[in-house]
Amino acid sequence: KNFNFLSSRIFGNLAFKVLESRRAIEFFSNQFLFSEPCDSDWLDNAQHELGVESRPPVMAFNAGFCLHRSYEKELKKLDQPTTIYAGSDDKRQREDYRFEIKDCKIQKLAGTNVLPWESPDAFVKAMQSD
Q1: Is the dihedral of CA 46, 52, 53, 55 positive or negative?
Q2: What is the pLDDT of residues 25-37, one digit of tens each?
Q3: Is 11 within 8 Å of 18 (Cβ atoms)?
């Protein structure tokens, strides 16, 4: 239902006028993505990326498609060493992955969900050390 609504030329365009507003981006980012309030650079970049071409992932997310597919089975079958970078303020529990995925470690970095933006130096350093 949501996907059809967001795909609608009339209602979808109206909805995206709201969803793509700076205020809505800021609200969503502060509620779900960052530990600290998002900065103007983030908002400027987000607004710069807006447009019809960038809407399909937003439509899928808001339609609930992302909630219906878990990659848990595939993750549990991984044979190679795996590092999961998790934000120290991320509300989702990641610790169980250490026991469910073979040779898995969790590396906590300052932030919530957008670690390359929130802690760029620490993220790069962590990636380089692994």
Answers
A1: positive
A2: 999 999 988 989 9
A3: no
